[in-house]
Amino acid sequence: MYIKVPYILEPRHYQMDFLKAIKEDRNVCSVIHRRAGKDTISIQALLLRSLMRVGTHIYLLPLQKQAREVVWSGLDHTGKPFISYIPECLIEYKNDARMEMRLINGSRLIFGGSNNFNGMMGTNPVSIIYSEFSLHNPLARQYLNPILIENGGLEVLQFTPRGKNHGWDVFDTVRENPRYLVQHLSVKETKKTDGTPVITPEQIEEAKKMGMSKEMVEQEFMVSFEIGNLGAYFTREMSEMEREGRLTTLKANPSLPLHSAWDLGGTDATAGWLFQIEGNRVKLLHLLHDSGQPLKYYLDAAERIRQSIGCKWGNHFMPHDVKQEHQGWEHTESRLMQARKAGWNFQVTHKVNFEDGIEAIRYVFPNIMVDKVNCQMGVRAIREYQREYDDARACYKSKPLDNWATHIVDALRYLSINYRRLYDIPQGMIQYRVEGMG
Questions:
Q1: For 231, which of 99, 370, 387, 422 could close a Cys bridge (C-beta 3.0–4.6 Å)?
Q2: Using CA atoms, how far apart are residues 258 and 317, in angstroms rounded to an integer?
Q3: Which CATH number characterizes residue 404's domain?
Q4: For 323-351, how does the pLDDT look when each residue is reduced to its tens digit (9 = 90+)?
């Protein structure tokens, strides 16, 4: 059997460079503009790798549901299913529920989301492709890379910048590494096979007329890392925190109680802030954040931290839905009951309007100090927590983008709501709009 790769695709010059690097067993870090065909060529890279080396090859998007909607069931700009770029004659077995397939040569292809990276730990991959890496959970690569290194595997990271976040960190680290092909391509450097621009100046002007800002154009089409994280909720607050020296190294006070605020994701990510109140300061000392772990895993980790400080426990806060029966891999009893059986007495946070929760964070923010070492992921999450962008209307939606940072900031939201209720001495009455009560 003869299969030509790229399969049913006439690649552009920059895409040929991409596939050539894969053939040469080199890693790829491709920072490229919107609508450049990132997933189209990445699927071809996945096919090429799976034919070159028998093993497990993983294709990751930021979220599990995106893996299904964008790639497994999604269509490219011509209306062709992305999965059709993998020839049917090579597929021995396909599992739609698990988004997996096995090829006739024995290679296994897995499609998933980095929000569930723990589920990938036992798969022993020899290739990992990160689609839109700048939106991924940064922990995923940290956990999975040692497996690739041990297996002599390779990684592909393709993305459009989102400010100088973890995408920038990796790009800046590998751009002089000969083991990587590094691309940094704006619309000025990409051409179709007929020599015309992939994105024309006229199309960019049309996007501006529809409401796309100058900063968005620089980020999405000119591939600039210098633009801040557009649509971020707390850019100003984080800048003030740094300027005032409140992002620092903190020492816990053993004479003060240690409080906690949590967002529980079940089989998804879970986040918990451990903090102390000292005067009018809210000191964020530790962040616990992981996925695919039972509740007891986090509670035990928190207890070890408390013991190392030598202090007593204070208040514990959980979201309003903690009373619901758990769905998934734990027990059918509520997580509140599970916590109480483990000796934890949680207070349930009132369900308030989302915008009020954001304003609660902004109210508390001037009093917050953060340990930059033990809360490193928390700091990054606060920076990257942003509004979802509406491409059709060229504006931001009123809801946040559902990404890896969501649970961490949700936990901070519950902390802030309860801080105003229990620890603050307000100048006037605090009024929240409780959902379902007008």
A1: 387
A2: 12
A3: 3.30.420.280
A4: 655 444 444 567 777 777 777 888 999 88
